[in-house]
Amino acid sequence: MRFVVMFGLLSACTGEDTASALMPEPADFLVPAGTYFEFTPRDTPGDIRMMRAVDGRHWVMRSGENWDLGEDLETFFIATDNGFWMGSDQLLPQDIEIGAEGVGVSVLDVDEWATVYGTFTRAMIVERASGRFAGQAALVEGVGPVTFTLDGVVWDIIYYEYPFDTEGEDAVEAG
Question: Tens digits of per-residue pLDDT, 68-100?
Fold first, then answer.
């Protein structure tokens, strides 16, 4: 109880808005090496699957029925200096707040986001103006992009798995 009261007093003394103090940093969207994702086109769920395994700062994308038999599509380098970047496209600006803008990207909202997988309780909803990722995307802390547009196709997450047990830390309500 004392901690809660002291935290409230400290927040009031700093003059910081509580909402902005809780906004994530670009590095909060990185995941551990070995994380595995599956995506499907949003308008035709289950039609085609795209898999992505994260190896440090490289995201390898494959298509196929499973990772071992899948065909390599592309590898993107992920950077978090001055925002969240996939290759040469910035998906989040450095300052993540509603209305913030970066290199060809704008933060539209911070809200729930429904995917084929389920509903994420807090997503950064952005719009890319141009480039290969042009279109709307949603990024979730600890998961990264859960919906993104790549070369005109909107991809939605349908599955993800961390390389370790995260029981009790899921940021999603399965749907």
Answer: 888 888 899 999 989 999 999 999 999 999 999
Give, in degrees to the nearest 5, the angle at Cα 38 between 119 and 139: 45
CB 138 within 8 A of CB 145: yes
Domain span including residue 109? 23-174
126: nearest Cα among 144, 61, 160: 144
What one-character DSSP code corresponds to residue 17? Answer: -
- With beta carbons less than 8 A apart as the criterion, state whether 138 and 123 touch: yes
- Residue 8, phi then psi, degrees to nearest 5: -60, -45
**In-domain check, residue 143:** yes
The closest alpha carbon to 127, from 153, 93, 159, belongs to 93
Residue keyed to tokens 């949003």: 42
Give the chain's domain count.
1
83 vs 29, 36, 54, 78, 96, CA distance in Å? 10, 23, 18, 10, 8
- pTM higher than 0.85 for the full model? no
End-to-end Cα, the chain, rounded Å: 35
Domain assignment of residue 18, yes or no: no
| Residues forming a β-bridge with 145 | 139
> Considering the domain boundaries, does residue 4 fall inside one?
no
In a domain, 14, yes or no: no
